[in-house]
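Sequence design from tokenized structure. All designs in this work follow the same two-part layout: the structure record, then the generated sequence. An example of the structure record is given first.
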């Protein structure tokens, strides 16, 4: 027989064998297929599989983030699972026979009551027969990766004559990797480095009395708990950058606006040289943290990596807070050594102190021989050897400190927030999946790295994922920002509403055409600012929420579909829903009991993003944490979809005649009436003998008509207690601000105290 014919017969025989295998043992075939995927494309981690009944009936209730979730469910147990699949997918060409052979259950349209009733009866019979059935409680694949509201009617699937355990299942980290669903069709999302991590957690049996909202919250909390743990192959931030630099030496993750980009390999070499010098500082300090006082630039990046490779932790200092506050922070944190630049502190008019080590002096001490040695190590040693040589103690410690950042200090002296590699990696995973990033993305590095959002997104994100960032020395330089976005073709910009106003003044048509996503936070986004920005650029400003203690991003008001990012928001006036792997619950501020949807209360957050604690401050750490949750101090309401609407900080409420009055809501209403381009008003309160407290409005513009503003507030139908009196509008020279751009609440409170009655 001819050799080619023999080969053809073998190939046809293999195909026939696979077809017979699929026809007679379809579930076995699917299991093998999943096993192949688990060892090539996906890296699946299962937790709690023992909670699936070994035998007998069970109804699995899962979230739905990917068109391939059914394969994940099949791989959780050796038992056959009858998975419910919506008709739009079940009847896809060529696949319907496959789904039937796998035993999937077709779910009709909800507006077909007879067919839905038949579905319930079929499900009840399967459960009576002791089978496992899986329901995707959202009713369809999430198009933006967030958990949608869970549907009613699940309990109708349960037979009344048999007890069926309800088993919650949370599928995570699948969203935003390779495929998603858009307008009922499977869409490819672009390349990612393989294998892709996926986490699946099976919970314990839950009560039949659970409501859809409670079930959604339960699965959300399961996701937060599993992503508090490191995933397989996760690496520390500096180790991951080292691998990136070795794998892509001529790619440039970091650059300064208006300058040439620094190649990854050059950044790595520079960082390793600095690390050798940092190790020599032990003779000056016994502390494991090193202060860093520099502006946003590639030199700051090299210093941060240098400190990390030296097995130390950088404490990034806020140079905009003023010399007095800066010195208090340094003394309180016990920082003995500060890496800075003589040129930089001269520009800031900060006095030189003995604890400062200047980079200009360090650069002069580095010899050519030292440079050659580090270069040889970098080029010749494999990544695993190189990291062990330069960072032998901390390169594996995912729960070790990555950075100490300092809170804004709006209500007191800034506290040192300890963030671990796991904290930042967790936040990058959530943020990255939510925004559909690619390695072609260019971030505008306008937020200072002493700011938690700036550190996470503009330093750690490029190190871990290989995106690019272009740094701005001064975020207030609107002209430089506009030019940078245009020249470097930035695609993602994060800014405060105040910064956005400044940028719009200098903006010229077409300069922001490369942007695909603009996110704002730190203060409430006024509708007039968002409207003006959209008029100029065609982009919606997407509001988000976070804080330093949460690494920092909790939620972003994402559009319903990942393919409409930057062009739509999720819910008007909302700060968005918690990102994947982050759980938020709203509780009564006094009892900490969880509240039903659409009820304002205190926001608590759980997940891998929650800080390790405050540096050398156990008392405040205990106050801020409760059973694994961080107590944000924000008053928020959550709807059935998980979207959050913030009312204000608990510290920015006044108790007036027994009612809670939010300063920020009053402030926003006045600002929207004034349509001012700068921060010209701030709301606080002082004591009042008749009603407990009284609203005070400080303003810094001339010719403000207080009576007219009060009348306009009444026309907005604000509650009477929210409306200040015209006599309580007080003129001051300027609204006191912190370096972060937030209002200095401490100074305002002191100023308002003199008007107490």
């Amino acid at each position: 027989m001819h050799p080619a014919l023999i080969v053809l017969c073998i190939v046809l025989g293999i195909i026939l064998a696979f077809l017979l295998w699929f026809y007679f043992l379809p579930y076995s075939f699917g299991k093998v297929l999943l096993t192949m995927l688990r060892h090539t494309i996906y890296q699946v981690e299962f937790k709690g599989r023992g909670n699936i009944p070994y035998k007998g009936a069970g109804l699995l209730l899962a979230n739905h983030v990917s068109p391939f979730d059914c394969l994940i469910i099949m791989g959780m147990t050796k038992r056959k699972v009858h998975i419910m699949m919506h008709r739009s997918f079940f009847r896809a060409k060529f696949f319907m026979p496959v789904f039937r052979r796998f035993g999937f259950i077709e779910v009709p349209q909800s507006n077909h009551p007879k067919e839905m009733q038949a579905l319930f009866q079929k499900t009840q019979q399967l459960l009576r027969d002791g089978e496992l059935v899986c329901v995707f409680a959202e009713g369809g694949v999430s198009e933006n990766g967030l958990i949608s509201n869970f549907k009613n009617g699940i309990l109708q699937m349960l037979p009344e004559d048999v007890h069926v355990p309800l088993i919650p299942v949370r599928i995570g980290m699948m969203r935003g990797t390779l495929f998603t669903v858009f307008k009922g069709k499977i869409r490819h999302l672009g390349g990612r480095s393989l294998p892709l991590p996926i986490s699946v957690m099976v919970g314990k049996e839950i009560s039949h009395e659970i409501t859809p909202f409670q079930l959604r919250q339960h699965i959300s909390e399961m996701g937060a708990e599993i992503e508090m743990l490191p995933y397989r192959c996760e690496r520390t931030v500096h180790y991951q950058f080292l691998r990136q630099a070795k794998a892509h030496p001529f790619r440039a993750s970091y650059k300064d606006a208006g300058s040439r980009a620094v190649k990854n390999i050059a950044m790595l070499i520079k960082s390793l040289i600095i690390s050798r010098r940092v190790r020599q500082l032990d003779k000056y300090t016994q502390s494991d943290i090193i202060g860093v006082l520099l502006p946003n630039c590639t030199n700051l990046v090299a210093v941060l990596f240098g400190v990390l490779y030296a097995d130390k932790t950088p404490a990034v200092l806020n140079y905009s807070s003023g010399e007095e506050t800066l010195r208090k922070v340094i003394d309180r944190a016990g920082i003995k050594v500060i890496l800075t630049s003589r040129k930089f502190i001269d520009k800031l008019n900060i006095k030189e102190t003995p604890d400062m080590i200047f980079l200009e002096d360090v650069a002069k001490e580095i010899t050519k021989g030292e440079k050659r040695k580090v270069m040889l190590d970098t080029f010749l040693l494999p990544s695993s050897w190189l990291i062990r040589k330069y960072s032998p103690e901390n390169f594996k410690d995912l729960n070790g400190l990555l950075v100490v950042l300092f809170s804004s200090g709006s209500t007191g002296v800034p506290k040192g927030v300890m963030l671990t590699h796991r904290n930042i990696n967790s936040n990058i995973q959530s943020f990255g999946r939510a925004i559909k990033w690619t390695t072609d993305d260019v971030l505008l590095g306008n937020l200072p790295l002493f700011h938690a959002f700036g550190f996470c997104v503009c330093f750690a994100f490029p190190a871990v994922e290989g995106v690019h960032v272009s740094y701005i020395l001064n975020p207030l330089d609107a002209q430089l920002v506009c030019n940078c976005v245009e020249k470097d073709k930035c695609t993602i910009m994060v800014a405060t509403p105040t910064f956005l106003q400044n940028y719009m003044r200098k903006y010229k048509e077409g300069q922001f055409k490369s942007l695909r996503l603009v996110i704002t936070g730190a203060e409430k986004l006024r509708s007039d600012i968002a409207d003006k920005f959209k008029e100029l650029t065609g982009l919606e400003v997407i509001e988000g929420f976070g804080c330093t203690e949460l690494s920092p991003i909790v939620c972003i008001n994402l559009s319903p579909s990942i393919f409409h990012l930057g062009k739509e928001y999720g819910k008007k006036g909302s700060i968005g829903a918690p990102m994947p792997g982050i759980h938020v619950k709203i509780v009564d501020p006094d009892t900490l009991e969880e509240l039903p949807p659409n009820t304002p209360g205190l926001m608590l957050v759980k997940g891998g993003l929650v800080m390790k604690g405050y540096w050398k401050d156990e008392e405040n750490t205990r106050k801020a944490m409760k059973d694994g949750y961080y107590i944000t101090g924000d008053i928020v309401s959550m709807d059935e979809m998980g979207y959050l609407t913030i009312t204000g900080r608990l510290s920015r409420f006044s108790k007036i005649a027994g009612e809670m009055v939010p300063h920020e809501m009053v402030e926003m209403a006045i600002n929207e009436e004034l349509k001012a381009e700068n921060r010209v008003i701030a709301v606080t309160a002082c004591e009042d003998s008749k009603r407990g407290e009284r609203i005070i409005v400080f303003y810094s513009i001339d010719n403000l008509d207080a009576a007219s503003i009060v009348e306009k507030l009444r026309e907005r139908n604000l509650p009477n207690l929210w409306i200040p009196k015209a006599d309580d509008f007080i003129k001051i020279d300027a609204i006191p601000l912190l370096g972060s751009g937030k209002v200095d609440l401490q100074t305002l409170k002191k100023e308002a105290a003199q008007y107490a009655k």
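The radius of gyration is 28 Å. We note this feature because it recurs in several other targets discussed in the main text.
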